[in-house]
Every structure is written in structure tokens, then in C-alpha cells.
Amino acid sequence: METQASRRGEVSIRELSKYFALNGRALSVLRGIDLDVESGQCVAIVGASGSGKTTLLRILAGLEAADAGQVLVDGAPIEGVGAERAVIFQEPRLLPWLTVTGDVACPLEVRGVAADDALQRARRYIRLVGLLDFQRPIQPSCREAWLSASGSPVPSRYSRNSFCSTSRSEYSMR
Questions:
Q1: Are strands 11-22 and 68-73 parallel, antiparallel or unpaired?
Q2: What confidence tens digit (pLDDT) does each residue in 100-137 have?
Q3: Region 5-77: CATH code
Q4: CA–CA separation, 65 vs 100, rounded Å?
Q5: Looking at 38-131, which runs of residues are DSSP E strands?
Q6: How far out from the chain centre does Cα 98 lie?
């Protein structure tokens, strides 16, 4: 018997379509998309600029609604944003002075995952997408660091000032 736990992370997309208005006409960005992603599977969405990659990801994250079709995560329809899904934007949005591991682990800790578990999970996914060789942070200017950290509900150990004294290599500025 299949349980909810055995299906964790499965995504099913059925006949997904999305349209935008352009000069008073409907522009089809996504049309009749069908896709199944199994738990643990890594998928890349590749296409030309304007082909609907970001729109598809926004629909999967619950940030945008489809005009037709169905998107299921673990058998349940996506209805708005949810804690089980996240979006990582192309532009630096959070803590650019962190290592890749620190940037991935931080939101897990914000959600209440224990620090060691968050780091372990972050490393697993970083390995999965081939980013293990990119562990050194790029040192931002003080202004960039302040803009990235201000107003963010993150654990204090993720603030720029706490980094200089931490001994954990994942958070080191060295």
C-alpha cells in the first residue's frame, strides 16, 4: 500500500496551460504541459528566454495560478504558497556572504529544522545538483550585506556580523 510518506516530493502536472494578455490578445506561454517528477528525481527546465520556464516554476511554487490544468505535489493540488515548496531566484536574494551550504540550510532552520539536520539536508541537495565545488562565499560589500540581511527573519547566526566569529566552515567568511 502506497503511503503519503512514500510519495513525498512527487510532482504531477496535467494539461497545464497559462496565458498572458499582450496588446489585448491572449499569449499562450504554457500549453498542455504534462510532466511527472518522482520523489528524489532531479529535473532541469531548459528553454529560450520567454518560453515559460519561470512561469512554470512560479506555478509550481504557488506564486501564480494556472489558467487550465492541474498541478499536484504528493497527490494534493497546489493552492497558493506552501512551506513544502521554495523558490531560489537567479539574483542574490538572501545572504550572499554565505557558502552555498549556508544559503540552502538557512531557510530550513527558519522553518524549525535543527541546525545539524539542516546542514545535512543542504549538503545532500547541493551534491545532487553538482554544486559541491562552489562552497566559498563571494564577499559582498557592507552595503550589499546589510541590504540582504535587513528585515529577514533569519537566525542570528546567519547575520553577517556573527559570521566572522563562527567556527563552522559552512558559514565561514574565510
A1: antiparallel
A2: 888 888 888 888 899 999 999 999 988 888 887 766 65
A3: 3.40.50.300
A4: 30
A5: 68-73, 76-77
A6: 16
How many C-beta atoms lie closer than 10 Å to residue 101's C-beta?
24
Say which DSSP state 19 is in. E
Cell numbers given for 12 = 504531477
Which set of grid coordinates corresponds to residue 120?
545535512
Cell of 96: 550572499
- Residue tagged 497546489 (cell numbers): 78
Angstrom CA distances, 146 to 4, 93, 100, 110, 159, stand at 41, 12, 19, 19, 9
Contacts made by residues 120-124, CB under 8 angstroms, sequence distance 24+? 122/170
For the chain, state the CA radius of gyration: 19
> Could you report the per-residue pLDDT of 27-58, keeping only the tens digit for each?
999 999 999 999 888 888 888 888 899 899 99
In 3-state terms the chain splits into helix, strand, coil percentages (rounded to 5) of 30, 20, 50
Could you state, in order of their start, the residue ranges of all structural domains in the chain?
5-77, 100-171
Beta-strand ranges (E) seen in the chain are 11-22, 25-37, 68-73, 76-77
